[in-house]
Fold this protein.
Amino acid sequence: MSQQIAQILSLRSSSALRGRLTVPGDKSISHRLLLFGALAEGQSQFQGLANGADVCSTAQVLRQMGVEIEISPELTLVNGVGLNGLKAPQQALDCGNSGTTLRLLMGVLAGQKFNSTLIGDASLSARPMGRVATPLISMGAQISLSHERFAPLSIQPAPIKGISYHLPVASAQVKSALLLAGLYADSPTQLTGELASRDHTERLLPAFGVHLSQSDQQIKIQPGQRLQATQATVPGDPSSAAFWLCAAALIPGSQIQIDQVSLNPTRIGFFEALKQMGAEIDWEIQQHDPEPWGSVSLSYAPLKRLQLDAKDIPFLVDEVPLLALLATQASGNSEIRGAEELRVKESDRLAVMAANLKALGASLEEHPDGLSIPGQQRLQGGLWQAHHDHRIAMTGVLAGLIATGTTKIQGADSIAVSYPDFMQDLERLQQD
Ligand code: S3P
């Protein structure tokens, strides 16, 4: 049973972390399974769904549109209503802190015969929605945004046309929203451009019986394809596993293994970056279809400098805060560039990481697209501000494990967005 996480946490330096564990189900896969299960015909059954607040937001908004969803720790049941079976919601659909919920739903709602309004918390309401709305509007969708870019936003019924669209940013959320809208169009939808981002939608739609034609250069979807209910097991989230791999890479003597974790090649950029830094990390795929998963293990070893550029970022986009922390402890100067997308996540993660690391006594340089971080710096306890961002809060906990004195994390309750048992798992690894 998850315990509520305090708003302020105090951390002191930690001895080695040891042990074997599993992490919560993958958040990106969980959102998609719920959404695709809702649009399918028949009852879908999923094991190991993510238990954080973000995935609860997806379940809640789908329930508001008449989808019956039963979630228990063992099994999630979704009674699909079919591609055209969603009901008009009586109230605004509250996506909470979850960008994936809001952006994927925009694609689905563009094709419905009812009005809908999408809202979110303060962080989500400050994130750019034009990147999804602009191509949807060129498909014929009727969308009104706040200040032309933000949620709250409302969607009115309109006929949807297929388009050919060149994606200007590598974003799995945009790519997925457009493929979903493509199901409601009058002709095929074809995407080109920045397609290299996490590919769960491309892997999972076919598991529901939808055919996509795909290559590295384009993805094409035919409209009107009906989804059929399916069964799936959700592997652990590599973005949650990343916290323990990072902690073990920071604390001498640590040795950990994480089992049943997603090893989807579009999600393991962080594992590869750790390898580049000289970490003793290994992973092995045990199962392939539709999503590859297996075990990953890491034993502490001193780290070397890190060099990342734009082509690396989509495959470790959520792990950049952890890499910035690791860079402060590596030998040599690290460079993280081409990472301007970090500025429009749950917080401006480049600015927030720079400010927090400085508050713990580190020196580093912030650029419009990244950070330059000298290595072998001693961190001293201080105040770390989460800025309503779960990944920043958890990165702060890890900083507190290697800083001298006491580190206070302000806004630690946001951890429940993706990893409600984070502090319990930390305690287990400290005791093993
Ligand atoms: C996600 C895509 C990524 C990622 C987010 C989850 C998804 O966002 O940062 O945490 O499930 O599609 P972008 O699509 O904005 O890169």
Summary: The chain has a mean pLDDT of 97. The two ends are 20 Å apart (CA to CA). Residues 1 and 110 are 38 Å apart (CA to CA).
